[in-house]
Write a structure and sequence with these properties.
The protein is α/β, with parallel strands linked by helices and 530 residues long. It has 3 domains: 4-199, 3-Layer(aba) Sandwich (Glutaredoxin); 210-329 and 456-521, FAD/NAD(P)-binding domain; 346-453, FAD/NAD(P)-binding domain (3-Layer(bba) Sandwich), CATH 3.50.50. The protein is built from 15 helices and 25 strands. The protein has helices spanning 4-14, 31-46, 57-61, 90-100, 109-116, 135-148, 163-168, 191-198, 202-211, 225-235, 269-281, 350-353, 369-379, 398-405, 501-521, and strands at residues 21-26, 50-53, 67-72, 79-82, 122-128, 152-158, 176-179, 182-186, 216-221, 241-245, 286-289, 293-297, 307-311, 316-324, 328-330, 346-347, 361-365, 384-388, 410-413, 416-423, 428-435, 441-445, 448-451, 455-457, 487-489. An 8-stranded mixed beta sheet has the order 2-1-3-4-6-5-7-8. Strands 9, 10, 11, 12, 13, 14 and 25 form a 7-stranded mixed beta sheet that branches. Strands 16-23-17-18-19 form a 5-stranded parallel beta sheet, with helices on one face. α1 (4-14) packs across α2 (31-46). The longest helix has 21 residues, at 501-521.
């Protein structure tokens, strides 16, 4: 099942096992079960501390097939993989083995204590797609919780293998998490976010800690390439730096392949985001995640400016200078039915959710590179793809358009305005279009719609504070300065025309250096608290 290189890498990782690990396989007569057994044989071969045990027919009848459980020898299993955890989920398997086998997780003790303190019997189920780059974060977080707390169990379920269960629960977006049989969460969630939903006092405690912080020399709002670059450059100046991010990695987390980052031949979004975090934690700064900024109160005209940022949890932070790097998000259609059927037929990530539409009819809205790439990817999974473009011609690169044109199950509709999304109350059933030339309307019968119409900057919370363009982008000069002294900006939330990772990184460093220059030219009443 695994090639020679993967076997060697796995064996090297598993030398870190401290305790013996038992795997129980639950199989049927399918080829998938045979493939799973081959994978487990390779895993057992990689370490003498791992044993694959036979199960009785009675045990087999109680679990999904194919699936397997992982447990410390002599203990009940609390982690189950239903399906083959390959692709993006192979790392989830390796981490589950290591942590079950006594290798300590890379989590701070305070978070571990929070997990241990969760009460009640908690059985999580996570439906995933092997092509989803966000699913492993959720799977790995819940597996870790199951290792740490004996009252927690977690089952990863590959939706492509258990289609009937996916259909019965009407799952049209992944990762989809259930707790004790009830919906718990949809989409990527960090461990801290999961804990916040379970531990109602966590948000209050985090807000209190943040508000008690002394003022920062530089406060960076955001967690993407621009924010990380700004934070690293600022921290190296020896000043007091805070980073408040809603989502560490930003849009990078939604990027499957990255091949144009200088000096890095190839990487993927989640891997780059993990590298960002390691880079940040290697410097002296305060990192606060899962924090959404809601208000920027700029300083008055006093001798020493002091800006204040308020967050959704009620916390406030003060700083002598601020770097805004809040990035952008997927642009929505803004038509009736879109919000009602989000995650129930309306999707924004073809890599994550595409496998759930196997053999169905879908549409992609958007004729740029992202839309055409989505159509190409989906064409190999679904029955048919209808690509819908508002303009009279596609805007994607010619090589992509040519590739798409060679696919027999892709239809292109141009000069079409999307009027509404329709459904049966449970899931999406169609899309109504208007021909912009003739004015005629028609409804397409569909099972899913993937929206790929560009990005919108995350700047709604800044209206009336800093000067914004007609598109909502923060207006900056060549040094990253905004219309407010002491407030700088960088990345996709600004008027910078090229929305690229490497450009954002450069802009972040420029903004931080400009903010530092502002600090040394602005007298302070006293040195900021260390």
């Amino acid at each position: 099942m695994l090639d020679g290189d993967m076997k060697q890498q796995l064996a090297a990782y598993l030398t870190r096992l401290v305790l013996p690990v038992e795997i129980r396989a639950f199989t049927d007569e399918s080829q998938d079960s045979r493939d799973m057994l081959a994978l487990l044989a390779d895993v057992a071969e990689a370490s003498p501390k791992i044993t694959v045990l036979a199960v009785s027919p009675e045990e087999r009848s109680r679990e999904r097939a194919p699936s397997f459980s992982i447990a410390r020898a002599g203990e009940p299993a609390r982690i189950v993989f239903a399906g083959l955890p390959m692709g993006h989920e192979f790392t989830s398997l390796v981490l589950a083995l290591l942590q079950t086998g006594g290798h300590p997780p890379k989590i701070d003790e305070e978070t571990l204590e929070q997990v241990r303190g969760l009460e009640g019997e908690l059985h999580f189920e996570t439906f995933i797609s092997l092509t989803c780059q966000n699913c492993p974060d959720v799977v790995q977080a819940l597996n870790l919780m199951a290792v740490v707390n004996p009252r927690i169990r977690h089952t990863m379920i590959d939706g492509a293998l258990f289609e009937q269960e996916v259909a019965a629960r009407n799952i049209l977006s992944v990762p989809a998490v259930y707790l004790n049989g009830e919906p718990f969460g949809m989409g990527r969630m960090e461990l801290a976010e999961i804990l916040a939903k379970l531990d109602k006092g966590a948000e209050r405690r985090a807000a209190a800690r943040m508000t008690s912080e002394a003022p920062y020399d530089m406060l960076i709002i955001g967690g993407g390439p621009a924010a990380v670059s700004a934070a690293v450059y600022a921290a190296r100046k020896g000043i007091r730096v805070g980073v408040a991010a809603e989502r560490l990695g930003g849009q990078v987390m939604d990027t499957l392949g990255i091949d144009n980052l200088i000096s890095v031949e190839h990487t993927e979004g989640p891997q780059l985001a993990a590298d960002f975090e390691r880079n940040l934690r290697a410097h002296t700064l305060d990192l606060m995640t899962l924090q959404r900024a809601t208000t920027l109160q700029t300083a008055d005209t006093s001798t020493v400016p002091m800006h204040e940022v308020r967050f959704e949890n009620g916390a406030t932070l003060q700083a002598r200078s601020v770097v805004l790097a809040t990035g952008a998000r997927w642009r929505e259609l803004g038509v009736p039915g879109e919000k009602e059927y989000r995650n129930r037929g309306v999707a924004y990530c073809p890599h994550c959710d595409g496998p759930l539409y196997k053999g169905r009819d879908v549409a992609v809205i958007g004729g740029g590179n992202s839309g055409v790439e989505a159509a190409i990817d989906l064409a190999g999974i679904v029955r048919s793809v209808t690509l819908i473009e508002f303009d009279s011609k596609l805007r994607a690169d010619a090589v992509l358009v040519e590739r798409m044109a060679s696919l027999p199950n892709v239809t292109v509709v141009t000069n079409a305005e999307t009027l509404s999304v329709s459904g049966d109350g449970t899931r999406l059933t169609g899309l109504t279009l208007r021909d912009r030339a003739s004015g005629d309307s028609r409804t397409l019968t569909l099972d899913g719609v993937f929206v790929q119409i560009g990005l919108v900057p995350n700047t709604d919370w800044l209206k009336g504070t800093v000067r914004l363009s007609s598109r909502g982008e923060i207006e900056i000069d060549s040094r990253g300065a905004t219309s407010v002294p002491g407030v700088f900006a960088a990345g996709d939330c600004t008027t910078e025309p090229f929305k690229q990772i490497v450009v954002a990184m450069g802009a972040g460093s420029t903004a931080a250096l400009s903010a530092f220059e502002h600090l040394i030219r602005t007298p302070a009443p006293q040195r900021a608290a260390a």
